[in-house]
TrEMBL record:
It is found in: Membrane. GO terms for cellular component: membrane. Keywords: Membrane, Transmembrane, Transmembrane helix. Residues 60-290 form the Protein root UVB sensitive/RUS domain. This is RUS1 protein. It holds the Pfam family UVB_sens_prot. The keyword Calcium does not apply. It comes from the Eukaryota. It comes from Symbiodinium pilosum. PANTHER family: RUS FAMILY MEMBER 1, RUS1 FAMILY PROTEIN C16ORF58.
């Protein structure tokens, strides 16, 4: 074979990912014009690299990556994924060690005080279930329902707090053996509720790290990481329990240290989660920035065409640092979404069968009702309108508990909402916010606007 000049500089290389063996072939041709891939001889440096890759440690590293990391890592996940799993692994390790200590205390409370206590704790921690816990988890999960999807970061952290509270209750059974059933039942209920809450919020959290539609692969890795961390935590927890002995104060102190460490790791892991969906908190943080910018231009008397203006709104990465998920979120605006129509409200928008939302006020509080057929972008538009109206009404400087400020600002708010919504919606899309699914209202409380009241 002889090289042909048009193809001679070209070669095909296979194995571009970290840890893969590199194979290289050049494009060559024979005298009859047929082209072939001819494996090229590796330089000595590449041969040495291949030998290192074939070393048992190199093969072990590749195996560990295959088990615990998604395919095509790190290009298939976001940059914060590695930080997330590192803190999560530490969280699970400390949490399971604390759980083993709590189980040991329960067994001691039952009178199991022999040398077999520690291994029994390690085994029964996996199988100890409580019927009350299952029932409570079902009831609470039904009440929370879609909020697992809208606010998974909050429920992920709350799940860890419930798990550590359950461990403390289990340890207290050793202090008050007479209350064993009550304390263990409550601890089991909190533990089961924590498990269900964590499992329900996990898919939404992990989905934020997927770059290549590989949520299933990331969840597979998460299961492997969780199992490994819990197995290691079981062994270390058994050893830690041997050191602590049967003294209640030592068990509580040891569990408290592990619980604190697991909560810190859980917080650090949760802070790197970047949500692009819009719930009440994120929507207010995002849209309020646009509303203030629009109101500032309005106050300056700027004669601008909104279609030619760019609205600056925060990105999901910026909101990640400002989002509150440990403490309760306090909304800056007093807006009721889909309130019960059992109170008299003064309407601020004209009722229209084609309208997808309706604004009203009562006793100085703003309310918005969404139509049963309102799409996600129309829900966002209505929320943007309500934010505009709220800011314009507050700009008057009055807070007398009446509806006068809302009534005066309603016409201007409606005009601005209609003029600027296209620009705001475009800014949401450009920043990567999810607009095809929003979590701003309860669908079962939406309304229908009829021309006549049914008799």
């Amino acid at each position: 074979m002889s090289d042909l000049s048009p193809w001679a500089p070209f070669a095909i290389t296979q194995g571009h990912l970290q840890g893969q063996r590199e194979r290289r072939s050049t494009i060559q041709a024979d005298g009859e014009g047929a082209f072939f891939l001819q494996p090229s001889k590796k330089p000595d440096s590449q041969d040495r690299g291949h030998q290192l890759g074939c070393h048992p440690l190199g093969r072990l590293r590749r195996f560990v990556n295959q088990v615990f990391m998604p395919v095509d890592f790190p290009s298939s996940v976001t940059e914060s994924y590695l930080t997330f799993i590192q803190y999560t692994a530490c969280q699970l390790l400390c949490s399971h060690m604390s759980k083993i200590i709590a189980t040991q205390a329960m067994l001691l409370a039952l009178g199991v005080g022999g040398p077999e206590t520690i291994p029994m704790a390690a085994v029964t921690a996996w199988v100890l279930k409580d019927g009350i816990g299952h029932l409570l988890a079902i009831v609470v999960g039904t009440l929370i329902n879609r909020r697992f999807d809208s606010d998974p970061k909050r429920f992920r952290f709350q799940a860890m707090m419930m798990a550590k509270s359950a461990d403390l209750l289990c340890i207290l059974t050793l202090q008050w053996p007479g209350c064993f059933f009550a304390l263990s039942a409550l601890g089991g209920a909190l533990g089961r509720l924590s498990m269900n809450t964590g499992q329900a919020s996990r898919p939404k959290v992990l989905d934020t790290f997927a770059r290549a539609g590989n949520l299933g692969d990331i969840m597979r890795c998460n299961n492997a990481q969780t199992t490994a961390a819990e197995l290691l935590g079981t062994g270390l927890g058994a050893c830690w329990g041997l050191l602590l002995g049967t003294e209640v104060r030592l068990l509580i102190s040891g569990s408290a240290l592990l619980s604190l460490a697991s909560l810190i790791c859980c917080y650090q892991a949760t802070t790197v989660v970047k949500m692009s969906s819009l719930n009440r908190q994120r929507a207010e943080l995002v849209l309020m920035a646009a509303v203030k910018q629009i109101c500032k231009l309005q106050q300056q008397g700027a004669d601008l065409d909104p279609r030619q203006q760019s609205v600056i709104i925060p990105s999901p990465e910026e909101i990640r640092h400002r989002e509150v998920f440990v403490l309760l979120y306090s909304s800056p605006g007093d807006i009721e979404v889909n309130p019960a129509v059992t109170t008299s409200y003064q309407l601020l928008t004209l009722p229209d069968p084609t309208s997808k939302y309706l604004l009203g006020c009562s006793r100085g509080r703003l309310a918005i009702w969404y139509h049963v057929e309102a799409a996600a972008h129309e829900v966002l538009q209505g929320f943007f309108h309500s934010q505009l109206l709220l800011v314009l009404a507050e700009a008057s400087g009055k807070d007398d508990g009446t509806n006068g400020d809302f009534v005066k600002a309603s016409a201007l708010a409606a005009d601005l909402a209609q003029q600027w919504w296209a620009s705001v919606y475009g800014a949401l899309l450009s920043q990567g916010w999810q607009t095809d699914m929003v979590f701003l209202d309860a669908r079962n409380k939406r309304v229908r606007i009829d021309k006549k009241t049914p008799v």
